[in-house]
Design brief:
- The protein has 8 helices and 5 strands.
- The termini are far apart.
- The longest helix has about 40 residues, at about 110-145.
- A 5-stranded mixed β-sheet has the order 2-1-3-4-5, with helices on both faces.
- The chain has 2 domains: about 5-105, 3-Layer(aba) Sandwich (Rossmann fold), CATH 3.40.50; about 130-210, no CATH class.
- It is elongated, with a radius of gyration of 18 Å.
- The protein is of the alpha/beta class.
- Helix 4 packs across helix 8.
- Strand 1, helix 1 (about 15-25) and strand 2 (about 30-35) form a beta-alpha-beta unit.
Length: about 210
């Protein structure tokens, strides 16, 4: 029985090292670390990613798969639910670093199975909804920035990167505390509060500065 950490690194600042360190701080140890870099979780299915295919080949009954959150498996509802259920059918246990959730196929009780499957569906739907919301916010920010392209004054340059902003929005959607979000994103609590209070303004600032 082996323990796998799977990481999907979709931007230059969502490093494998960060996801690995976060998991280790939560008490996880690994026999294998597998990561896909620069791969969209929306448009590229898990089985179509280079390391995703490798993970499907390596996992066996009794193994444990650790992910930071289900959005690392993908941000496509059908793909995430299909992937988790396929792994459970194989006898693989899936665990998340955030909130320390566990999913497996060992239960035969119909009520427990229904609750488990409903939670999987909810988490997968949330991952896709967050991706769509982020995309719309980016489009709105870019459009607003273009409207002001002729203005010389762009305001103060944001003290956060787009990757940090996306981390904050992501964890806010998961009801994480400001302290937890600050630690995960590397930002100050004050900056996290500013993004929390007006995410549209933060997105607009990133777009104006082309960040």
């Amino acid at each position: 029985m082996a323990i796998f950490l799977y990481a999907r690194v979709s931007t230059s600042e969502q490093t494998l090292g960060h996801q690995k360190t976060q998991a280790e701080k939560a008490g996880f140890t690994f026999d294998h670390v597998i990561a896909d870099h620069g791969v969209s979780g929306v448009s590229v299915l898990m089985k179509d990613r280079p390391e995703g295919r490798r993970l499907f080949d390596m996992l066996r009954a009794g193994d444990t798969l650790v992910v930071r959150w289900v959005d690392r498996l993908g941000r496509n509802y059908a793909d995430v639910t299909d992937t988790i259920r396929e792994f459970m059918r194989r006898g693989v246990v899936i665990r998340t670093v955030i909130n320390n959730m566990t999913f497996d196929g060992s239960s035969s009780d119909p009520m427990q199975m229904a609750v488990r499957d409903a939670m999987i569906s909810f988490m997968a739907a949330s991952a896709q909804a967050q991706a769509e919301a982020t995309k719309e916010a980016q489009k709105a920010g870019i459009a607003s920035a273009k409207d002001r392209a002729d203005e010389a004054y762009r305001g103060r340059k944001p003290s956060f990167s787009r990757a940090a902003y996306e981390t904050v929005v992501d964890l806010l959607g998961k009801s994480a505390s400001v302290s937890e979000i600050a630690q995960a994103s590397g930002l100050t609590r004050q900056t996290v509060y500013r993004i929390k209070e007006d995410p549209a303004a933060a997105e607009k600032a990133l777009a104006v500065w082309s960040l």
